[in-house]
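An instance as discussed:

___
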Amino acid sequence: MIRKHFAGYAATALALAVSAQAFAGTVTTDGADIVIKTKGGLEVGTTDKEFSFKLGGRLQADYSRFDGFYTKNGNNGDGAYFRRAYLELGGTVYKDWKYQINYDMSHNSGNADNGYFDEASFSYTGFSPVTLKFGRFDPDFGLEKATSSKWVTATERTSAYELADWINTHQDGMGAQVGGVVANMAYLDAGVYAKDADDTDGDSVKQFNFRGVFAPLNTDGNVLHVGVDYAYRDLDDVAFDSRIRPRLGMRGIATNGGNDAGDNGNRATFGGATLSPAGSYKDDSTWGAEFAYAFGPFSAQAEYLKRKLKADADAYEDIKADGYYGQLAYTITGESRVYKLDGAKFDTIKPANKEIGAWEVFYRYDHIKVDDPNVVVATATRDVGDTKASTNTIGVNWYANEAVKVSLDYVHVSTDGIRNANGDDDGNGVVTRLQYVF
């Protein structure tokens, strides 16, 4: 007999026992019955929803090939790598407590010193509709970031996020967040985070995030979504890497989890410096805006981001950056993108026809601009003044079933004020992805 309050902890052992020894007869408990599900990973839970356990994961195998600005000499380069290889463990304890642990075996999240965790968090839902979340997880900023990497439309999220890569990554720190749904038409959350960087006294960098979304239409295929975002971090007396180094939709120029373009990959510095000494900058703030509309199989979305890195010494000037993207997508097999108000995000496309799956086509335009007045001398690869980049992406996604997704993107980039060592200010690339989730 298994007592009720041990059911959640014994779930894995029980599932294996039931699978391996089905001939032993019926398994019973003196508490709630236990349900075992194997569709989409292994999930075990009590029927009263007091305890649950789910083991899942995602595997994204990418191959990209690129030329021009994407490589230092302009010749063809490529990368074959695991973009993500997550093992995910989550569940419920005593109904109101949730936990989630995602470990990245591709080593694109975290590091050797702090562990390769994409997430290690627990949440309390007893104050419904408000949820309290604690631990290591990415701050909430932007629609594309809120949408899981499994279900974003393009293989890589917008280049605008790369203008301020700290806004929605945990950077091996810890955080606390409060958020929830309001009146079935809005979502709000706010959080505070201690990042893995210290000032001269050993006090960690503190970051504050806010996101607010109004979505009066929030059902699948019928979405109207507008939102605002804000992120702030205190950099007083902090030495840090201030470089703005976008990959511009081509992760294969520099990545982990396999092979990339190596020394010939051109991850150019649009602004900032490898090391900004303590006392050079006071704080860093970023504003954002979100929009999305979906009607049946059609969806449109856009985001805008504006950043200011405020100088704190006479020898330095403020660094400013802004960027945006616009995206149009259409599911030619007729399915709608799933939308979830809790989290204010898009989710998967579920194929209606199990034989042909669901087919989606899309187009996205990204534009970024960086203004770094600290650059006062031109080089062979960078002019004095603003640096800009625009990317055009067209692609197709095949949702073969609810577990397998195949993607193909073509990306063209053009730049202004910055170029590779060969003098190229544009480039092309192709990205393919085979994704399996469970």
In short: The chain is about 5% helix and 50% strand. Residues 177 and 191 are 4 Å apart (CA to CA).
